[in-house]
Description:
Layout: H1 3-8, H2 21-34, H3 46-53, H4 57-69, E1 73-76, E2 80-83, E3 86-87, H5 88-110, H6 114-136, H7 140-157, H8 161-170, H9 172-181, H10 187-203, H11 207-219, H12 225-231, E4 236-237
Parallel strand pairs: 3-4
Antiparallel strand pairs: 1-2
Helix pairs in contact: 2-4, 3-4, 5-9, 5-10, 5-11, 6-7, 6-10, 10-11
Amino acid sequence: MPAVDVIARIPPLRLERSRQAAPQVFDALRELIVSLELAPGTVLPRAELAERYGVSQTPVRDALMKLGEEGLVDIFPQHATVVSRIDIASALRAHFLRRALELEIVRELAAAPAPTVLALVVQLREQIARQGRALTAQDYAGFTAADRDFHRALYDAAGMPDLWQLMRRRSGHIDRLRRLNLPAKGKAQAVVRDHKAIAAAIEAREPDAAQAAVRQHLSGTMAFVDQVRRRHPEFVSG
């Protein structure tokens, strides 16, 4: 894709003066990559990105290097930076880590003090309602954001926000797989049903049921890999 077309698809960035520019550029580009607005194979020209975001090339370079550390871009020195293909092996590792963490997290939360559980359930139901509204509007970006906030609330309630950040750094490839599969018939509705089951089990203070709901929720995450390979062979490696 020509550089001019790439830049035209990137929204301008309103920088917060209280924060450094590089993390904001990183967050903006990462969201575009994970949402597949910037598809695998897209060339990211540093100079044009800096102009688009109204910053020097230094924060753009730093953001691209961090994206490279997450495996979301391939950096070819003195040549180009390209959005990476989805690495199936990395997605599998992220899935294994997420399942291990969230099974233990929901078990602890289902046995937590009542005030913690009640406050959490309110948050979870807010995100489920957001997902319902997004689904009605066929707003997949909004649906994905609410899905992310649902799971983040679990980590925060368990007092483990650092583990959420760890998961986020590892999840770029699997998040792109999920985004490719989300429009599939019944997939989004199944996500909402699973979230309701997780919230209900935590509210009922049933650790075994909470874990069973998480297993159900995550059981199909990698089951659609072969379908994605067939539909989008140019997006996937491994």
